[in-house]
Design goal:
Blueprint (H helix, E strand, L loop, with lengths): L20 E8 L2 E7 L8 H8 L24 E8 L4 E12 L5 E14 L3 E13 L13 E16 L4 E16 L5 E2 L4 E13 L6 E15 L1 E10 L5 E9 L7 E12 L2 E11 L10 E10 L2
Antiparallel strand pairs: 1-2, 2-3, 3-4, 4-5, 5-6, 6-7, 7-8, 8-10, 9-12, 10-11, 11-14, 12-13, 14-15, 15-16
Length: 309
């Protein structure tokens, strides 16, 4: 077989963030694998992954909170997952993800997560999760440059998730994650002497299958996105310089835990309009968005249409 290659086409000339690819399969019923490029690999863990095993797919906008919130902060890059079913009730999953945005933003990250899920009877599942995230040039996916930058950060996280089927149509879900982060300061930054940082994220929800027709679904959720709960840093601000070149600075200890706490309420309804056409409607209400206690409540309403060709 022969193939012709356009000599004027180079991957360097293309924005690779516009492309995505996923490959999945398995060697037998107990071993499976998934590989992705520019895909959302977080949904493969936590409560959302347990629902998928029971053939229940959800459409929560806060899906990251119900999966693996510390499994990287970008959907670009490469990811992989290995699934191992050791018995009818016990499954293990191991995932890796890497992001390299150093050329555009000076950011790089590597993440790993290990999760065990146990099926309790025919109705309930419980999952335990442990993860590690290393970021270069950022903290929780933040900016890599400027006066408030960091050199690197390392986060160790743990999480617990669960699902419970009340009946054949209604399923309850829950997810809680917490992490401890250590930060390496950058010399030219105004931020110095970081303490260990603690943060968490959690959510509970309910999914109802076929409430009105044979191919529709309703979901409700209450969640808190990732929020720093404990930590401080020394902020040094220059205010004067003498003739000998000495710089005088004011120093202040800044609490990294925000005064506010975002609480998100959301609901969605999706239904099949035609054999190959689905309609999704969403409603989200946020109290103190971005954990800002001075921010007004925010509401989001929109609808999407998906057609398969």
């Amino acid at each position: 077989m022969q193939a012709e290659i356009d000599p004027f086409f180079r991957l360097d000339d293309r924005d690779m963030s516009e492309y995505s690819l996923s490959i999945y399969g398995g060697t037998n019923k107990s071993v499976g694998y998934e590989f992705g490029f520019n895909t959302n690999s977080q949904r493969d863990f936590g409560a959302l992954a347990s629902l998928s095993k029971d053939a229940v797919s959800t459409s929560f906008l806060s899906g990251k909170t119900f999966s693996a919130p510390y499994f990287g902060f970008s959907e670009t890059g490469f990811s992989g997952k290995l699934n191992l079913s050791t018995s009818k009730h016990l499954d293990f999953s191991f995932g890796l993800a890497t992001t390299d945005e150093e050329k555009d933003f000076g950011l790089r990250s590597n993440a790993a997560v290990l999760e065990g899920t146990y099926k309790v009877g025919e109705r309930a599942t419980i999952g335990l999760q442990a993860g590690q995230l290393s970021e270069s040039g950022s903290l929780f996916g933040g900016s890599s440059g400027g006066a408030f930058s960091v050199d690197s950060s390392d986060s160790l996280s743990v999480g617990v998730s669960g699902t419970y089927r009340l009946n054949d149509r209604i399923t309850l879900i829950g997810n809680y994650s917490e992490a401890r982060t250590r930060v390496a300061q950058r010399d030219n930054s105004l931020l110095h002497d970081f303490s260990d940082i603690r943060s968490n994220a959690y959510g509970v929800g309910m999914v109802i299958d076929t409430p009105f027709t044979r191919r529709d679904q309703v979901g409700f959720a209450f969640s808190q996105p990732l929020r720093v709960t404990q930590g401080h840093v020394n902020l040094e601000v220059p205010y004067a310089r003498d003739f000998e070149g000495n710089i005088y600075k004011n120093s202040e200890i800044v609490d990294l835990a925000p005064d506010g706490r975002e609480r998100t309420f959301e609901a969605y309804y999706k239904f099949n309009l035609h054999k190959d056409t689905d309609v999704f409607t969403y409603l989200m209400h946020q109290q103190q968005p971005a954990h800002d206690n001075t921010a007004d409540d925010a509401a989001t309403v929109f609808m999407t249409l998906r057609h398969r060709f």
